[in-house]
Amino acid sequence: MFTVIVMTISLSGRASEAAAAQPVSPSGIHVEVQQGLMTVDVRGAPLADLLRVIEERAAVRVTIHGGNSPLVTDSFTDLPVDEGIERLVRGSGLVLTYAPSQRGAGVSVLKEVRVYLTPPQAAMPAAANGTKPPSPARRVEQERSARLREIRTLARQRDEAAASALAQILALDLDPTVRVKAVAALGKLGGTEAAMALSMALMDQDPSVRVQAARALGQVEGDQATPALGGVLMGDSDPRVRRAAARALGSVRSEEARWALEAAALDADRSVRRAVASALTKWGKRGSASQ
Q1: What would you report as the CA-atom Rg of the chain, rounded to the nearest whole angstrom?
Q2: Eight-state DSSP code of residue 95
Q3: Which of 65, 90, 120, 151 has a CA 20 to 30 Å removed from the CA of 48?
Q4: What is the C-alpha to C-alpha distance for residues 98 and 108, in angstroms, rounded to an integer?
Q5: Cα-flanking dihedrals φ and ψ of residue 101, to 5°?
Q6: How many structural domains compose the chain?
């Protein structure tokens, strides 16, 4: 399982304003939330049903992607809501979004939970009439081609449902080639769902996915992508990714983008320094043209 925290804030004082009344839960599910702490006793219930009960009790928005809901059996007492959810959804993708609390500065509350359920495994092709089944390598290629066709179809839909489906592929597919294509498609679709998925992709374990994500996020978010791209430019371990971030920032017109580029002017990698210098040159030309 992987967990992405969309907003990094001190964990102290995290609270979910749960409803005072605790309605009756579906059979096999017991959930109580009091003062930001969750108690759960669940026996063989679908994860999706459990998450819906948590959504109601903890007053957080829960979005579930995918339909293969595993059965959950677990029991714990007085865990923070976010920690309890992380424990319950292990094995699936998870995004937690926080927002400042009205209770005071430095306090955040969990506002949204996105769960990406693992898709069912495709059935192995069986031999028929003595026909030899495809080799493992051939089978992998066939499955990849099918997923790439699905991405192309979704990219043509250009709606929120397509963006959600592409975000799920990006979060769960093990093939970096497929994830790169999903990122490219999300960059063309744009919108809030695409922007969130692209921000997640900046942390992908494969550099080629991060490169594509940096390019696409600059296109989708514009000036708003500056903090994320600046963080990549200063912190990513792969110079290819830093170069992509520098080029994306060169197309952003905010002063913050220029500051990020100037901070990276002494990057240890020569190719990154050249990309930064080229981006800053664009800034100089813009300044001259505006005078």
Answers
A1: 22
A2: E
A3: 151
A4: 6
A5: -85, 155
A6: 2
Whole domain around residue 46: which residue ranges? 3-116
Total residue length of the chain: 291
Compute the C-alpha angle 23/25/26, nearest 5°: 150
66 DSSP 8-state letter:
S
Mean model confidence pLDDT for the chain? 78
DSSP lists the bridge partners of residue 201 as none
pLDDT digits 0-9 by tens, 160-217? 888 888 988 888 888 888 999 999 999 998 888 888 899 989 998 899 999 999 999 9
In angstroms, the Cα distances linking 137 to 90, 133, 172, 175 are 30, 11, 20, 13
What tens digit of pLDDT does each residue of 223-274 get?
888 899 999 999 898 999 999 999 999 888 778 888 989 998 888 999 899 9
Please tell me the pTM assigned to this model: 0.56
Whether residue 106 sits in one domain with residue 145: no
